[in-house]
Design goal:
The protein is of the alpha+beta class. The protein is 53% helix and 23% strand. It has two domains: 114 residues; 140 residues, Lipoxygenase-1 (Sandwich), CATH 2.60.60. The protein is elongated and about 185 Å long.
Length: 345
Amino acid sequence: MDEQIKPDQLREVLLKLEVTQYARGEMHLIKTDLRELLARDLKDHRQELRQRNHRFIAIVVATAAVLVGGDVWTLRDSVSRARDSVSKEIEASRERSRTALAAEVKRIQQEVSNRLDREFGVPQMRRLVEQKAREYTEGEARSYITGQVEQGLRPFREQVSLAMGEISKQRDLVASYRTKVNEALDDLGKRLEAADPVLQPIRTATATVEVQVDSDQQINSTFIDRGGYFALGRGDKPLLEASGSEATAIQTGGNRVIWRAVWNMDAADQAMGKPVQSLREAQFAQIQFLMMPKQSKVVGGSVRLTVNSTTLLDFPVPPQQVSDNLIISIRSIELALKPLGTRPH
């Protein structure tokens, strides 16, 4: 760096450039001031000449008026003397203007010289040189420090670049592994769903219903087209319904009549295609035998609901009095739905 840069020569060039620019600016200001001064003086001289000409014309007119009636020679002589007087006056005015202009130019030149001496005196020049030297030194120092720092950081930047490249490769590998892991998890989830019956969609459902009634009726009948249904419901909406057209009633002795039926879910039922575990939303179950006598006294029973031939839900039938609408209600079904998981709130 020292062989390429000569500080003394650079300082000299900077100083000359600064002085030249400053001198140009000062000369421009001086020219502007001189133009304004000359224009002002010229205007004043013109005004003075105009006033003198007016006075002279007044004198000539007065003289002519006095000489009116005289001879021609006297009038011609007066005119000649007037012209000579005007010429002398004009020449005197010009001489005075030249003298005043020369004195003003000399004064302005002296003022410019003094101003330049003041501006470019030794202290001013020293301050200017020192300022430019400081600016140059600071710039060179900054450039040198920047170069040294850049040179010192170059090996570290190369190492960082290599490390970033390696990190990029590792990131790609991690992304590839993540994709494979996600695919494996998806496949595992599908397999778990396939292995877990409660996650499968409902395709079939069969309700095997058996209800014991306290009755001495001697009956052993199979009812055709007068079966009944078993349903799971929530609020006023059914979730699943298995129904059929057949049912049997048999007196087993001891005042016990067994009402029995096997009913299937219809292919158009609202539960078709939904996950098996969706049945855990049920709040109650109902049974209805269309041929059961009204006001029958139910002493017990059970319902086994088989879903997709893999999920078994057993509902105990509590003792109760059958109402006129022949509905047998099962309110406590939490234990029966336990195989489906926790009921959502």
